[in-house]
Specification:
The chain is of the alpha/beta class. Helix 3 runs parallel beside helix 4 and helix 7 (216-227) crosses helix 9. The strands form four sheets. A six-stranded parallel β-sheet has the order 2-1-3-4-5-10, sandwiched between helices. A three-stranded mixed β-sheet has the order 11-8-13. A two-stranded parallel ribbon has the order 6-9. Helices cover 38% and strands 15% of the residues.
């Protein structure tokens, strides 16, 4: 059972599950608001799922600075309600979280034991949501991810393709690992299958992100280089500093998540960025012009 089925991760999760023969109950905000305890309780018991995935979230990072209460209502209180109801039904919960729980001051990949230090309203709301899930439900799997992109919703890849100017200015002093929603969906389904096996006890927090580390500028350059193979003209991409592109909410300058624990426990290894990006471009742009 997936909450947040109308978001970019939820939509790709539905597509992936359908193609792999999984039976899924997909719930959008209008189907069940995670901030409504009665609504959540009703859908969880009709029918009872084997695993619950919380892909619902307030994700407007900059807007959260002026809507901090709303961000907390969804990302903390909604997560708590879902975890509490999942615990009552004794159903494992996979909760999607974010690299924003870290401050970005590290210089080596963040593992799951690294101390959190969220900056900004959105980041604080997501970190509070993690704590709420841990407190409410022992059978939880918190999955932190980063720099998510795909064919659905709003994301960096789609924004770059939409802008399509002769020259673009892109930040080159923020570093992370872009994560395809398709790859993330496959990882979630694999984790869900593992969580249902008799004797499973590896509950806790995990990281899943793409295999390759780049800056936003480096990622943009790759996007346009690959998009040329689909007949799209590549603009010039100028590198700029974060200070040249001010935003309401602070961004971590270093968002690299280590996936070593996930690989060890679940055997899930992230795909190279170029392969994942091309799969997304195939969905967005159609067939490549050259093999």
């Amino acid at each position: 059972m997936v909450f947040g089925a109308g978001g970019q991760v939820g939509l790709h999760l539905i597509e992936t599950a359908t193609g792999s023969g999984h039976h899924m109950v997909a719930l959008t905000h209008s189907d069940a608001d995670i901030c409504d305890s009665d609504a959540v309780a009703a859908v969880i018991t009709r029918p009872a799922p084997t695993v619950i995935v919380n892909a619902a979230a307030y994700t407007a990072v900059d807007k959260a600075e002026s809507e901090a209460d709303r961000a907390l209502q969804v990302n903390r209180d909604g997560a708590a309600i879902l975890a509490e109801q999942a615990a009552k039904a004794d159903v494992p919960l996979i909760h999607i979280s974010t690299d924003y729980v870290f401050d970005g001051a590290a210089s080596v990949p963040y593992d799951e034991e690294h101390e959190v230090n969220p900056q900004g309203a959105y980041a604080r709301s997501k970190e509070a949501g993690e704590r709420a899930v841990r407190s409410a439900h022992g059978k939880h799997l918190i999955l932190r991810t980063a720099w998510v992109y795909g064919p659905f919703g709003t994301n960096f890849v789609k924004t770059m393709l939409r802008l399509g100017a002769d020259e673009l200015r892109v930040v080159d002093d923020q570093t992370g690992r872009p994560t395809s929603t398709g790859d993330l969906a496959e990882a979630i389904l694999a984790i869900a299958e593992a969580a249902q096996r008799p004797g499973f006890t590896d509950w806790g927090t995990y990281h899943y992100a793409g295999a390759d580390t780049v800056t936003w500028h480096g990622f943009a350059t790759m996007i346009f280089a690959e998009a040329e193979k689909f007949g799209r003209k590549a603009p010039r991409v100028q590198a700029i500093a974060t200070a040249d592109f001010p935003t309401a909410a602070p961004r971590p300058s270093y968002s690299v998540l280590s996936t070593a624990k996930l690989e060890r426990i679940f055997g899930i290894k992230p795909r190279p960025l170029r392969a994942s990006l091309n799969a997304t471009l195939e969905q967005l742009l159609g067939r490549r012009e050259s093999a």
